[in-house]
Amino acid sequence: MVWHFARVSERESYTFRWGRGSGVITVHRGDVRGSHGEETLLCTIPVGIDWTEENDLRRQARQWLRAREQHQRARP
Questions:
Q1: pTM for the model
Q2: Coil, strand or helix at 3
Q3: What is the structure's pLDDT at 8?
Q4: Domain range summary for the chain, segments of one domain joined by +
Q5: Which of 3, 16, 17, 32 fits a 20 to 30 Å CA distance from 49?
Q6: What angle do CA 26, 63, 4 make, to 5 degrees?
Q7: What is the pLDDT of residues 37-72, one digit of tens each?
Q8: In 1-76, where do the E strands start and end?
């Protein structure tokens, strides 16, 4: 299992978690690196593949954060 933490602002941060064989990345509110719990689960990102290296998770996290930012900007 691999984790990636991203701080978006002083008040907003996310931890991305990807387990081998899971087929999904879980997105959690806050810094929960090393955690296996689901208490802070925000959403899941279906990926259908396993990660090869930690950079795979970083790339997926950046894509999710960009899409989230674009969605927020598009709101009236």
A1: 0.88
A2: strand
A3: 94
A4: 2-74
A5: 32
A6: 45
A7: 899 999 999 988 888 888 889 999 999 999 998 888
A8: 2-7, 13-18, 24-29, 41-46
